[in-house]
Design goal:
Family: To bacterial alkanal monooxygenase alpha and beta chains.
Distance between the termini: 5 Å
GO cellular component, one term: cytosol
GO molecular function, one term: oxidoreductase activity, acting on paired donors, with incorporation or reduction of molecular oxygen
CATH superfamily: Luciferase-like domain
Organism: Erythrobacter sanguineus
Protein name: Luciferase-like monooxygenase
Number of helices: 12
Number of domains: 1
Oligomer: single chain
CATH topology: TIM Barrel
Radius of gyration: 19 Å
Helix content: 40-55%
Length: 331
């Protein structure tokens, strides 16, 4: 049976506050746990008015206290922004607080301009070149696979599930070489999806952590009682995508009816391209869309994405999706 999980960016909506954003994320995590989701992940972004998950490990600690058993983790930590030692300490702490529940998804993209590089006191593009070595070092800090001149405490011995994230062949190749589970970010970058999964499965080398390839694919999912309602709640994220690609990101905007009809052809084409990794509509339509996506990718897990302006709409979308897919999608 295919497993389902949730990715959240801690979106800050127009007219909303950070406190409200964190409360909405907490409510969503509780709803994901109640609905039977396997994981709840938070993504690291910085210096963006509409995304509040920058202090990812802190957010995860709060979510861990608000939930009981769902796995919690990063989707992902952008390792070039940090040192492996810092992340070993942070996630080692999370593992000690919430044993057996911590995932550590790692990404390579620095995602930063010169201002953030200066703020972090790092050359992020240079740091990204050392990403493979940093992943190996981080794993060694957690497992003790080989001797290092320093011990991470907390960190060493932590039972953390390490994941490789990606949207290109690079992440797939590294995940295969290191024998790690692989999560593909098709929800915003579907171009290399099929090729990356093929490379990962072809080149996978078993490790102590994983005997065979394990794939999770992220997709945008918006479910509502009617197709019109689903398309309406999806329009907030569509607006965010268009603004981001236009160089004008901001807080999550209110939904707009028939939003795509107002766009120029180029923006419509961009959203249509992203739509290959999306399911929007009634519970039946969403179930059929997810089933087709699983058939295409052979995914072991699906990561459900998709911010809504009203937090209650995302909780309802998740509940409808999980109910529709229950016992209906055999892997």
């Amino acid at each position: 049976m295919t497993a389902f999980s949730v990715l959240d960016l801690v979106p800050v909506r127009e007219g909303g506050t950070l406190t409200e954003a964190f409360a909405a994320t907490t409510d969503l995590a509780r709803a994901a746990e109640a609905a039977g989701c396997k994981r709840f992940w938070v993504a690291e972004h910085h210096a963006m008015d509409g995304i509040a998950g920058g202090a990812t490990s802190v957010v995860l600690a709060h979510i861990g206290n608000a939930t009981r058993c769902i796995r919690i983790g990063s989707g992902g930590i952008m390792l070039p922004n940090h040192t492996p030692f810092q992340i070993a300490e942070q996630f080692g702490t999370l593992d000690a607080l919430f044993p057996g529940r911590i995932d550590l998804g790692l990404g390579r993209a620095p995602g930063a301009g010169p201002e953030l590089q200066q703020a972090l006191r790092k050359n992020l593009h240079q740091a990204s070149e050392y990403f493979p070595q940093d992943v190996v070092e981080l794993r060694a800090l957690l497992t003790g696979d080989y001797d290092l001149p320093i011990t991470a405490t907390p960190g060493l011995g932590a039972k953390i599930e390490l994941w490789m994230l990606g949207s290109s062949l690079f992440g797939a190749q590294l995940a295969a070489k290191l024998g790690l589970p692989y999560a593909f970010a098709a929800h915003f970058a579907p171009d290399h999806l099929d090729a990356a999964l093929a490379v990962y499965r072809r080149d996978f080398q078993p490790s102590d952590a994983l005997e065979r390839p394990h794939v999770m694919v992220a997709m945008n999912v918006f479910a509502a009682e009617t197709e019109a309602q689903a398309r309406l709640i999806a329009s907030s994220q569509q607006q965010s995508f268009v603004r981001l690609r236009s160089g004008n990101p901001g807080k999550l905007p209110a939904p707009v009816a028939d939003y795509t009809d107002t766009l120029p052809a180029s923006a419509q084409a961009m959203l249509a391209h992203l739509g290959q990794a999306a399911a929007v509509g009634t519970p039946t339509q969403v179930r059929e869309g997810i089933a087709a996506f699983i058939q295409r990718t052979g995914a072991d897990e699906i990561m459900l994405c998709g911010a809504t302006f009203e937090p209650e709409a995302r909780v309802r979308s998740l509940e409808l999706t999980m109910k529709a897919c229950e016992n209906a999608l055999a892997a």
